[in-house]
Amino acid sequence: MAIHPRIYIGLGSTGAKIVSKLKQELESRADKETLEWTYFLAITSERDREKGVGSDLDFLSMSLAGSSKTTDVVDTMVLSQRQDPRILDETSKWWYWEGKAANRPWYPPVDNFTTGCGGIRACGRLLFHRSDAVRHKLTGIRDYFSQKYAELSARDEEQAAEIGMNEMVCRVFGLLAGGTCSGLFLDIPFLIKDVFGANTTIAGTYILGDVCQTGNMEASRNQIREDTQNHNTAFALSELSLLQGSNGRRTVLKDGRWPRTLGLNGSLPNGLFDTMAPPYYRVTLVGARSQNDLALNTPCRRMPNSEIVPIPSS
Length: 314
Known about the structure:
The protein is of the alpha/beta class. The protein has one domain (6-63, 116-310): Rossmann fold. Helix content is 43%, strand content 15%. The protein has helices spanning 12-29, 32-36, 68-79, 85-91, 96-102, 121-129, 133-155, 157-160, 179-184, 187-196, 223-244, 246-252, 293-297; strands spanning 6-11, 38-44, 58-61, 169-175, 201-207, 257-259, 272-274, 282-287, 306-310. Strands 3-2-1-4-5-8-9 form a seven-stranded parallel β-sheet. Strands 6-7 form a two-stranded antiparallel ribbon. Helix 7 (133-155) runs parallel beside helix 10 (187-196) and helix 11 crosses helix 12 (246-252). It starts with 5 loop residues before the first strand and ends with a strand.
């Protein structure tokens, strides 16, 4: 039976923790040959690894903070502008429900740029598009597998024939309530296919926002945070439902294509790559047994190739 190279990717802090745990589990159970053709990657907007993310996990940070020496400078230059009336007026239009609930203009709820994008989807997607970092990382993983395959072919052609290099398998994990995951989870499968080929099988497993609110005591609940989590999830599901369906893709994708140029610095080739296949071969959505569950899952009921899995009751 052929072995297909596999990549497990965690998006955002929750996705990173999931893939880190999955790596530990597979390393204790899977056979050596399978692990040789398996790669684990975390993509987050935090500058540093959070607790629960193993030090042996390949960790790609999209943080604006950069090195610790530049963090204070960036924070001072950008975050201090919160009091500029022009900026306050403009940002109040970005995240209107939070600004309205708090009776103030919106601004990312972070004190510095080391802690991620503050649960804001737009920030997550902008971080993804601002540089070539994710593409370069995926290209490096592709080259890693290609080199392994070339070395194996030189040693044992018969064994190399058992490796399905033209049919990569990728599993992506994350929390749709978060800004990083919900901001880039639609772009990442198209980029993966552009790097590894259109035959790459991509499956997504995503946690819905109502899971974050399960078990919260009434006195400790933060309505603004919950609104953000619910809106992130609802918008992400609506967009995913559109792109998973063929009619939606014809509406959204120009001439059946997705922008290939990811990054604003002009170093990538201009143009588009053809794709009328859905971003994901299969989508598994993990929701809670709660009052919010029905509302958040409504877009999923007409989403092709998807399933909803409730978390076990405690």
